[in-house]
Amino acid sequence: MIEHASSHSESIANPAFHASHREKIRINNLHAFYGESHILHGIDMTVNQGELVTLLGRNGSGRSTTLRAIMNMVGERSGQIVINGHETIAMPAHKIAHIGLGFCPEERGIFASLNVEENLMLPPNVRSDGVSLEEIYDMFPNLYERRTSQGTRLSGGEQQMLALARILRTGANILLLDEITEGLAPVIVQKLGEVLRNLKERGLTILLVEQNFRFAAPIADRHYVMEHGHIVEEVHANELEAKTELLNTYLGV
Amino acid sequence: MATLFDINLFALFGQLLVGLINGSFYALLSLGLAIIFGLLKIINFAQGAMYMLGAFIALLALKYMGINYWFALILVPLTVGLIGILMERFLIRPIANEDHLYSLLLTFGLALIIQGVFTHAFGSSGLSYAVPDALKGGTKLPFMYLPNYRAWIIIVSVLVCAGTWWMIEKTKLGAYLRAGTENPQLMQAFGINVPLIVTLTFGFGVALAGFAGVMAAPIYSVSPDMGSNILITVFAIVVIGGMGSIGGAIITGLGMGVVEGLTKYFYPEASNTVIFLVMVIVLLLKPAGLFGKEA
């Protein structure tokens, strides 16, 4: 009886309590530093199960740093970062992936000393239901053809596919993707759009840093706009038209 | 005397054999250095001291605990590897983020301390370790007499080097190691415990030196300065092969041993300097080393 009462009072005290099982990422008052420089100044955001959320903003606004801070790849960080219900702010970097996160860095991070298949098999499985190797080769036939090539010999587009495929294989159900369309040909950008839609249908949760707004707009559920290490605006997909002008001012398009 | 174009084949093959033996030790030691340098980006000046330690531990274990050569071959690398693990964990890691010059000075200092302690305890004249009974004797070949223990050194060193190369280049564990060398931060983000890999790698690299020490005990004099003598040559070999190249370290190690052996036959006066001469030429023509990647 007592337990019952306490859980009831908790749900009243915290209106987010009922929704919390849907929250895959919840960030409160996140500050991040590289050495002396203070990059993120109190970020608050949430990403729910199955959502695709983008971080928009100019270069240097702190979007990549937000992803890197989630992965504990910055010098120092403070605040709260709750992933799949686990508080991770004090967690060592190598444990964070294991709660179901997959990170695709801006520079793609393909290893030159590994061949394509070794690159693909490198990250340890973090959950049991990852995309199988056959499915990946099905999705990206180029990777199969070039599976014995040195990883960095692939074209930019192929390397991007590899960087993405590599974290799908681990079973991560929350993906942090940093500028995956940067510098790629339109046909490959289109292919990546299809892949992201496909991943959404599978129920994956995606946080996307993207410069290419035309790429992000049709597939995203929500957008956060960042400036100088703050989140300055939250825009839902259905508000896009009404807020176009505002977005243009922030993004400087 | 068997001669061919004025070449004394007995003497030539004799020197070639000596060259291969030395080369085996060069390969084992430079392989350990290359592995450690690859992942930690530090130059382990204590590698020679660990080699010496390996020889001494084998000697003392036999004398005081009756542990024979064969057990020593397993136990000594484990012991030296453990010392390496403690060294990395408690001495090198605290300064890992500082300039690499600090860890270089640290390992250099450690080498001097270890060598000093052993000189104080055992003097510098050198002790001897008996060749195990099973490997006594030798085989008569057409142009030379091949002592069994020397054949054993060459075969075992080549096997250990090849096994290590295979492990690093062809296995999943090796892929972690290669990737960790390239981008440790991303490896962490993938959920791989890089600090643990670094510690174990350091331990393994140092254990190779300990293993070389046990192998060396029966044919070289076991003395406190045996490590510092060989280390300078080994550094030259690592530079010739290319820093961090695993295959390069092995091939260059064996190759330079042979070059040194041949020089001993054809122009003995230069035998102590020939490796350094090769190093200078390689540095001038291919600064990254024979097997190194151009930066």
Describe this structure in words.
The complex is a heterodimer of chains A (253) and B (295). Chain A has 253 residues and is α/β, with parallel strands linked by helices. Chain A has a single domain, classed as Rossmann fold, CATH 3.40.50. Chain A is built from ten helices and ten strands. Chain A has helices at 2-13, 63-70, 93-96, 116-121, 133-139, 141-145, 156-169, 186-201, 213-216, 244-251; strands at residues 23-34, 37-48, 52-57, 76-83, 86-87, 101-104, 174-178, 205-209, 222-227, 230-236. In chain A, the strands form two sheets. Chain A has a six-stranded mixed beta sheet, with helices on both faces. The longest helix of chain A has 16 residues, at 186-201. Chain B has 295 residues and is mainly alpha-helical. Chain B has one domain (3-285): ABC transporter involved in vitamin B12 uptake, BtuC. Chain B is 71% helix and 4% strand. Chain B is built from eleven helices and four strands, in the order ββααααββααααααα. Chain B has helices at 9-40, 47-65, 69-92, 100-122, 148-170, 172-182, 184-189, 194-216, 226-241, 246-266, 274-285; strands spanning 3-4, 7-8, 138-141, 144-147. Chain B has a two-stranded antiparallel ribbon. Chain B has a two-stranded antiparallel sheet with strand order 3-4. Chain B is globular, with a radius of gyration of 19 Å.
Question: What is shown here, in short?
Answer:
With 253 residues, chain A is an alpha/beta fold. Chain A contains ten helices and ten strands. A six-stranded mixed sheet of chain A has the order 6-7-8-3-9-10, with helices on both faces. Chain A has a four-stranded antiparallel sheet with strand order 2-1-4-5, with helices on one face.
> Which secondary-structure class do the elements of chain A indicate?
alpha/beta
Strand order of the largest sheet of chain A: 6-7-8-3-9-10
Beta strands of chain B, count: 4
The CATH topology of chain A corresponds to: Rossmann fold
What's the number of extended β-strand segments of chain A?
10
Report how far the terminal alpha carbons of chain A are from each other: 59 Å
Which architecture of chain A does the CATH hierarchy give at level 2? 3-Layer(aba) Sandwich
Please report which band the strand proportion of chain A falls in: under 5%, 5-15%, 15-25%, 25-35%, 35-45% or over 45%.
25-35%
